Amino acid sequence: MLCLPFLRGVSIGCVSAYLYNEMGSRGLLANLILLWIPEVLRALLLIFFVSIALDTSVSLFRLNFLARSPSPDIGIKRCLHSFVLISFGMLLVSMLEGVLAAVFAPVLLGLSA
């Protein structure tokens, strides 16, 4: 499970190093616009979802093993609602990443369309 974020980080690091090595400060600007803006948004959404999922897991644990939670439906509904919203947010971030790549990659990287 931790392998995917690790490999994603390694690949972004390799692309960042390549852009800086080949293009200097222009490569850093391309790196900021094309890679880091969508990745920061994606990481924030994932952190938010993980915190909600952890709260839901703790409430389910309390319900099942400690019998201390009066209403288990609220935590699960909140988690599912958040999952749908965050999935939609991830879709929007992916679309933003595609738009940024389509608009700025030819300009910043000198690619011909």
Please provide a brief summary of the model.
The protein is mainly alpha-helical and 113 residues long. It is 89% helix and 0% strand.
Which regions contain 5 or more consecutive residues with pLDDT less than 50? none
Rg, nearest Å: 20 Å
Termini Cα gap: 38 Å
Total number of helices = 3
Strand content: under 5%
How many β strands by DSSP? 0
Helix content: over 70%
Q: Overall mean pLDDT score?
A: 81
Please state the overall shape, judged from the principal axes of the Cα atoms: elongated
Decide which structural class fits the backbone: mainly alpha
Largest sheet: none
One letter per element, helices H and strands E, the order comes to: HHH
Can you walk me through this structure?
- This protein is an all-alpha fold and 113 residues long.
- The protein starts with a helix and ends with a helix.
- It is built from 3 helices and no strands.
- It has a domain at 34-105.
- The chain has helices at residues 3-23, 25-66, 72-109.
Could you list some keywords that capture this structure?
single chain; 113 residues; mainly alpha; 3 helices; 89% helix
Fold topology:
Layout: H1 3-23, H2 25-66, H3 72-109
Helix pairs in contact: 1-2, 2-3
